[in-house]
What does this fold into?
Amino acid sequence: MLSVLIANVAHDCYRHLWQHPERHQEMKTSVGGIWWIVAIVESAFIRMFSEFGRVRGMISRGEFSHLGRRFDWFAGRAGDGPRKEESFNNIQRVILSLLIFCILFRL
It folds into this structure.
């Protein structure tokens, strides 16, 4: 569980600070500096616990066929771009989680 938490926070920091820093520039916000990093970490935890609650709800309702499927917030209106990007991000997070797990397991 620790490797998943670390991987998700690290991946979100990477995405927001290095991979797509221009997305922050386009936002109309007064948050910057260290507070921007705190907001990134906070949003990673919000996303993880939201997904955890969603999975827990599906399991409690017996909706096992829905496990592993993503909820499309845009209902396909934005095309396949956001869906493909999120799928790619998920693959990166899983790989990073496994690498961190292997490192932690050896320590």
Summary: Residues 31 and 39 are 8 Å apart (CA to CA). The radius of gyration is 16 Å.
